[in-house]
Amino acid sequence: MLENSNGNLNGNQIHNNKEENEESHTNGENKETRYLDGSVRLRNPHIELMDQDILYHLALGSESHDLVEMFGDVKFVCMGGTPKRMESFAEYIMSEIGHRLPTGTQLMDISQYSYRYSMYKVGPVLSISHGMGAPSIGILLHEVIKLMYHAKCRDPIFFRIGTCGGIGLDGGTVVISDDASDGMMNKYYQVPILGKIVKRPAKLDKKLARELKALSTPEDLYDTVTGTTMCADDFYEGQGRLDGAFCDYTEAEKMEYLERLRSAGIKNIEMEATTFAALTHHAGIKAAVVCVTLLDRLKGDQVCTPKEVLVEWQLRPQILVARYIKRYLQTKGRISFDGHGSMCVKSPRRFKLVQQESQTFE
């Protein structure tokens, strides 16, 4: 180990040693989250004892569908808020990686019978809508992580592709999250379980964030930055907006709070990052959040940008994630698409029951 002339480690060496320690800690957890072949292992011993695991909000089941046949080649899970956005991403990534659908077929919403989330499969890529807020993405993540387990997927990579409000950043700026915090600047996701508050670290893969940042180019004609993302539990008061139905603070108090966020290194505000980071980290899944700012919150609260501009801005995170996926496939070798992706029913009776269960409105 090298030291400087004063016998002390320099900053880069300290940083590298910290990353090595974190990596060693992660490797130690691999036994809990991976089998020897790299396939996903759940931190839940009860699932193996169940006759069937119904992924209720995806309209899938471990015995009604052949999940290995349908999803066994999945390497990338890309999530975004709305069904339309993720359908558009599925179309986009299909053209980017050169995936072709069988003649006479078209992209299918695999979870159409759930009426809750939309899911499209393009070769090794799943494109899924997660709705708005922590509860919605939390439910989805539980079921998608279980889907990875049942399908025996090996070392999947998760991306959240979204929109956000910038803190001192112009609209259209792409933000890659290298950290996540809640509205109190706590870097964990807390959830009441059996009457007790459980806090799970909200950690994203910093190496993945650096690799994504390296894929941005001057030709993009817009800025791509990294930083901490604040996850709010609410769109209005939780984000310090002045335009909600209720507001018990002044504009000066709002501005003081936002400046405090900027001083703490927070680049943007959205509503899913801590949940996404904590649950993927707990599952041992490499994950990243890439968002585009729709406005600078230091300059206002409402999005007034023309619709056609917003549509172009929302493509920017998709472009960056697509670059990563293309590079990965080029580096690792194209993953075989044969024999995967179409609806594959194991039990017609169970398949019908799963559809009926998922269609039940509460």
From TrEMBL:
Q: Which residues bind phosphate?
A: R116, R160, I161, G162, T163
Q: Which residues form the Nucleoside phosphorylase domain?
A: 75-325
The organism is Psylliodes chrysocephalus
Biased composition regions of type Basic and acidic residues, renumbered to the chain: 16-35
GO MF terms listed in the record are: uridine phosphorylase activity
Start and end residues of each stretch annotated as Disordered? 1-35
Question: Cellular component terms, GO, for this chain's entry?
Answer: cytosol
Task: Output one GO BP term.
Answer: uridine catabolic process
- Note the InterPro entries from the entry: Nucleoside_phosphorylase_d, Nucleoside_phosphorylase_sf, Uridine_phosphorylase_euk
PANTHER family attached to this UniProt entry: FI09636P-RELATED (PTHR43691:SF11), URIDINE PHOSPHORYLASE (PTHR43691)
Tell me which Pfam families the record gives. Answer: PNP_UDP_1
Where are the compositionally biased (Low complexity) regions? Answer: 1-15
Provide the binding site for substrate.
Q239, R241
In the record, the note on similarity to other proteins reads: Belongs to the PNP/UDP phosphorylase family.
Q: What is this protein called?
A: Nucleoside phosphorylase domain-containing protein
Lineage start: Eukaryota, Metazoa, Ecdysozoa, Arthropoda, Hexapoda
This protein's source sits in the domain of life called Eukaryota
